[in-house]
Amino acid sequence: MENKKIMICDDDAGILEVLEMMLDIEGYTVFTESNSTNLMKGINENKPDLLLMDLWMPVLSGDQLLRTIRSTKELEDLPVIILSASVDGNEIADNAGANGFIAKPFDMDAVSIQIQNILQNT
């Protein structure tokens, strides 16, 4: 999946670092954002092919951001995978319009496979 751009938004610096390193090794161009209030600006500047986003972040939560993305004409088709340790995270992600869900703690291979599957189908 060379030349595909992935943006990651998570308030946990460790998760951002691990995901960025893994996806960079796989040949993706990776952008990270730890502050949810800056996400929309980052999406508009970097035009990612896929967004990985934490569900629970300070100020703006992942489901709030996802609803904004889905209601924005230019971004409504952006594939989004939600990451969360929440027991009902999958349901929340689905209700907000996510294309996929990954439970934390996550398996790196599972993350990679889900990203590949979504990118191949868009």
UniProtKB/TrEMBL annotation:
SUPFAM superfamilies recorded: CheY-like (SSF52172)
Full protein name: Histidine kinase
GO BP: phosphorelay signal transduction system
Sample GO molecular function, one term: kinase activity
InterPro entries: Bact_response_regulator, CheY-like_superfamily, Sig_transdc_resp-reg_receiver
Domain Response regulatory: 5-119
Organism: Epilithonimonas lactis
Matches recorded under Gene3D superfamilies: 3.40.50.2300
Modified sites of kind 4-aspartylphosphate: 54
Xref: PANTHER family: PROTEIN PILG, STRESS RESPONSE REGULATOR PROTEIN 1
Keyword terms, alphabetized: Kinase, Phosphoprotein, Transferase, Two-component regulatory system
Cited SMART domains: REC
Entry annotated with the keyword Kinase: yes
PROSITE patterns: RESPONSE_REGULATORY
